[in-house]
Structures are given as structure tokens and as C-alpha cells.
Specification:
alpha+beta, Nucleoside Triphosphate Pyrophosphohydrolase, about 30% strand
Length: about 130
């Protein structure tokens, strides 16, 4: 069993991805899931509390990545202005070269990252205990 679970959002707009800069690395914005909280509700809560953004959870592809702690990742969108200074728009063609907090997640995203127009259903990055 995992001690912690995280939920994060991929927001793509105009061929750029929204990332959070933490120290010298980037990560997908989001946060921790509280016990018994639904994943999508946790994502909405984290975006509102941490970044002041009202989001809609979008659809997308499914990835399986062995990560610990467990990470669930969904496509999101918002019409709110991005004001939080920790958030930064990175061009998709630069995504491969940036320092990212988990190589496994970045590699999976690079293989399957759709354009904004291709976003479909729930994206799920899932690790396991084995």
C-alpha cells in the first residue's frame, strides 16, 4: 500500500504545457490526495487552493508507469488567468530538454503526449507495489 497518492494535471494550450517550477526542476501542477477523497475532486481542490485556478478535468490517454508514491495524472483546462509565479508555460518542443522531477513520467508523456486538439479521456499514470 502507498503512504501517499498524488494527483496532477496536464494543461496544454497553444502548443505549450503548464508546469510548476520547484527549485531547479519542473513538475506537473497538482498535489496530494487526502484519504477517501475522489481523485478528480482532489485535483480540483489542489488547483484551487495552490494556484487559485478553477479547472475542468478533461479526457486523455492512459499511461502505466511504475512510480512511488502513486501518481494519477489527468488532462485539465481552465479559463482563469494563470497568475501563480510558480507556474510557467513551456513550449512542447522544449519539454524533452527540461529538468523534470520524475524521468519515468516525462518519458511516458513524450511517447504519447497529444496535442491540445487530440485530448480525449482520462489520463492515468499508475505505479504498483511489485
Amino acid at each position: 500500500m502507498y503512504d501517499k497518492m498524488y494527483v496532477r494535471g496536464i494543461f496544454i494550450k497553444e502548443n505549450k504545457i503548464l508546469l510548476e517550477k520547484v527549485k531547479d526542476q519542473y513538475q506537473l501542477p497538482g498535489g496530494i490526495v487526502i484519504q477517501d477523497e475522489f481523485l478528480k475532486e482532489a485535483l480540483v481542490r489542489n488547483f484551487l487552493m495552490k494556484y487559485g485556478l478553477h479547472i475542468q478535468v478533461r479526457r486523455g490517454r492512459v499511461y502505466d508507469v511504475n512510480t512511488k508514491p502513486l501518481e494519477y495524472i489527468y488532462f485539465v483546462k481552465t479559463e482563469d488567468p494563470i497568475l501563480d509565479s510558480s507556474l510557467e508555460w513551456i513550449p512542447l518542443d522544449r519539454f524533452e530538454e527540461i529538468p523534470f522531477y520524475k524521468k519515468e513520467i516525462k518519458d511516458a508523456m513524450l511517447k504519447h503526449l497529444p496535442s491540445y486538439d487530440e485530448i480525449e479521456d482520462v489520463i492515468l499514470l499508475e505505479g504498483n507495489d511489485s
